[in-house]
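To the wet lab folks,

You asked to see what we're planning to order before we commit. Fair enough. Below is the target structure as tokens, and below that is the sequence we designed to fit it. If anything looks off to you, flag it before the synthesis order goes out.
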């Protein structure tokens, strides 16, 4: 339990994961409603959609599903390269994880620029380009959480295993209650992010990318604060 919470030099993992899950819910709403009826983070869903496209001989859906999957793979590969092998010792939230999130922020900033430039209604090449950026961003976020290692056991994009863990905890009572609470919070955060994104689509669709960017900014800022505190502590000990 203490490992999952992190040491005194680690940022609050649970709250930061919830913020990232909120952002991924908003990005998925944008991609599903305006970028070709596919997801930017739920690759299982995209594989099913690819199967549907094949069965219906729907080239547009197949192309969008394949692009989303390819973009996600690129994001995971790049993020894994930056984060390096997950650590089993040392700080729970290493600097490399924050570096991956910084890259994600740059990618999503590009997504936001394109989203605004197309007045939140991209089509043609713009739609495909924004789908690539959204999927790469979500792949980077997935890789960042993997970079925390098995001690954290957290995902902010694909949450089927989180749902299983929450249900299992209630059904068996064999898990520490803190994990059930965190899992439920992640699931609610994705729903909240999707709901907030959907609401913005109805009133100010151009502002939708601000949701994941704001969540990322808070997480990166919090992580940077803790990294700085760790460095100062190390200097003081010397």
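Sequence we intend to order:
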């Amino acid at each position: 339990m203490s490992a999952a919470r992190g040491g005194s030099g680690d940022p609050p993992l649970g709250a930061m994961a919830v913020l990232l899950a909120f952002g991924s819910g908003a990005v998925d709403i944008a991609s599903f409603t305006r970028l070709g009826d596919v997801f930017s983070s739920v690759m299982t869903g995209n594989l099913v959609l690819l199967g549907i496209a094949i069965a219906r001989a729907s080239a547009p859906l197949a192309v969008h599903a394949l692009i989303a999957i390819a973009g996600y793979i690129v994001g995971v590969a790049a993020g894994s390269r930056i984060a390096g092998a997950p650590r089993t010792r040392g700080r729970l939230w290493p600097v490399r994880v924050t570096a991956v999130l910084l890259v994600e922020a740059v990618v999503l900033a590009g997504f936001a620029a394109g989203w605004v430039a197309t007045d939140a209604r991209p089509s043609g090449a713009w739609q495909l380009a924004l789908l690539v950026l959204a999927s790469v961003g979500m792949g980077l976020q997935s890789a960042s959480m993997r970079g925390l290692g098995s001690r954290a056991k957290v995902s902010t994009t694909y949450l089927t295993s989180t749902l299983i863990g929450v249900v299992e905890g209630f059904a068996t009572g064999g898990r520490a209650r803190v994990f059930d609470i965190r899992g439920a919070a992640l699931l609610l955060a994705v729903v909240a992010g999707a709901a907030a994104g959907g609401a913005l689509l109805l009133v100010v669709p151009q502002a939708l990318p601000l949701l994941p960017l704001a969540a990322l900014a808070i997480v990166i800022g919090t992580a940077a604060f803790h990294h700085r505190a760790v460095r100062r502590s190390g200097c003081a000990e010397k």
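Structural context that might help your review: DSSP finds nine helices and no strands in the chain. The longest helix spans residues 210-237.

Thanks,
Computational group
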